[in-house]
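Continuing the batch. This is chain 6 of the set; chains 1 through 5 are on the previous pages. Same settings as before, nothing changed between runs. Recording input and output for traceability.
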Amino acid sequence: MQHRVERGEGLCVFCTQLSTNDEMIVAHTNEAEYRSFVANRKNEALQSRMIVMPVPYNLRVDEEVKIYEKLVKASDLSHVHIAPHALKTASIFSILTRLKESKKQGVDLLKKLYLYNGQTVEGLKDTDVKELRAEYPDEGMSGLDPRYIINRISTALIRRDTQCINALDVLRAIKDGLDQHASISKDDKERLLNYISMARKEYDEMSKTEIQKAFVYSFEESAKTLLDNYLDNVEAYCNWQKIKDPLTGEEVDPDERLMRSIEEQIGISDNAKRAFREEILIRISTYSRRGKKFEYHSHERLREAIEKKLFNDLKDVVKITTSTKTPDEQQLKKVNEVIARLVDEHGYCSVCANELLRYTGSLLNR
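Output for chain 6:
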């Protein structure tokens, strides 16, 4: 008989056999209390009858978000709106505190975090997860627990006259709580402040992407048009063929400038461009064999490249629109369209939508 208890609640599991074959007590404790129990020689008789099951903290961002969503929903504060990405940003911080630096070349904590979360990470494969987990068998047995994070989220939620909180509010509450945490040393605090900074940078990127999607009119159509143009040129390039100019109808070489303008968004070097393009064609072929349609988001890196390309093309418009204190009629119309799209399509309320717009504008003007 086995019974698992999430150590995300600060617990460890052990089982004690009472009789020959049909009874077992399942109990749980934290690791420090267990070590104290084992160190007491009066308990030696029990130790040989115990089956110890260490249960580490959760190490997947998406699962951590679910923990916070469940706890907030069950609280008396569920009426306060939580902006998109606020709980994800808190989860990124939480998981960072539980991970250990890998000795594997090219793997930093953020790459490790996203790989553990099942996301595509350039230069790494799913098989690398096993290698990384084997590097530290006790990974997840330390770090901040969900109780601390949800307590800090609650602190942000209970502020007077609060209608909505965003990721910055949550990170600020987490930071303020470090001084009140009894077991955090000065060195630990410096390390945790660095993780807050890392989570903040990830939120900055999420903010830019969110605004990008809201600013691009008919984003899916714009992305599809750019994708089709890119794929037409990639196919011609890889097959050593010409491509028909849509305006003149003449046969011309593949548009290298267009392809590189997209690939450079995600750091694809000139030497790596052919391998990347061939990888895209292989993915398209795989989708075709399975009867599936290849979309711009079917390849994570290509999706990122297309979104960044579209956003960079609009960056000047976004900067002007978001930073102008007295927007003209046309700019005001654009701002209202963006806010409406954030509310209608991305889960924002009018409060956090306006805050996101101002915040992203400040990021772009730095």
